[in-house]
Amino acid sequence: MATPHIACERGDIAPLVIMPGDPKRAERIARDHMEGVKLVSDVRGIGAWTGTFDGVPVTAMASGMGVPSLSIYATELYSQFGVERICRVGTCGGISSKVKVKDVIVAVSAHTNSSVATIDVPGVSLSLAASYEMLRGAVDQARRAGRTVHVGPVYTSDFFYSARTDIIPALDRLGTLGVEMEAAGLYACAAAHGKEALAVLTVSDHLKDGSGDLTADERETMFADSLQAAVAALKA
């Protein structure tokens, strides 16, 4: 049952999917952290790698950048391949003074300037939110591991480069923890298909103080922390 963007059969994709943005990061997750890994699809360079985490079947597959790209893969995974849960694992820019570089953010909801929040129900801006069970699993794991973890809303922007920096203070006042580019799209797709989703993000830089000049080793350690929380969310 191939789709335009995923070239494999329904059983080749696990019901649980971990989804970074970067295809190379998806391959690294599979190669370095999973067992019995098999490449099951590689359309447009977006590999889908299926194996196990601690004996639990999981597929690692990238989303690409932005809501449109993620929405293609999440829609096909949920609707055609029997996927029940997707956890985005990635990075974000810090907005709130409460968060610091290297902290983990578990996104309970996602504000957005994308039309994904308004297109399905005219006149209504949908509340795009995470799965509670997944959220609880990620937070519990991160706290047990001694990580600083923040739970709250993030801002999903359609623009990486934007002149509208004036909105950041208002988002901060409303409790927004960080900014990224995919969570709202994932939550919208999950809601549309009656499935579950979560975004676990590591703060890689901060919009207020410009901090975030990290070494490669620091970035890899940061990623390992968020990956553990994401896997716990999938298995919760």
- Tell me the CATH topology: Rossmann fold
Major sheet: 5 strands, mixed, barrel
What is the CATH class?
A: Alpha Beta
- Helix content estimate: 25-40%
Query: Approximately how much beta-strand content do the residues carry?
Result: 25-35%
**Mass-distribution shape:** globular
**Reported CATH architecture:** 3-Layer(aba) Sandwich
Give the integer mean of the pLDDT values.
Answer: 93
What is the number of beta strands? 9
Structural class: alpha/beta
Unreliable parts: none
Across the major sheet, the strand order is 5-8-7-6-9
Straight-line distance between termini = 28 Å
Number of H/I helices: 6
| CATH 4th-level superfamily | Nucleoside phosphorylase domain
Estimate nothing, just give the exact number of structural domains: 1
Order of helices and strands: EHEEEHEEHEHEHEH
**Over all CA atoms, what is the radius of gyration?**
17 Å
Enzyme class: transferase
Pfam families: PNP_UDP_1
Catalytic activity: uridine + phosphate = alpha-D-ribose 1-phosphate + uracil
Protein name: Uridine phosphorylase
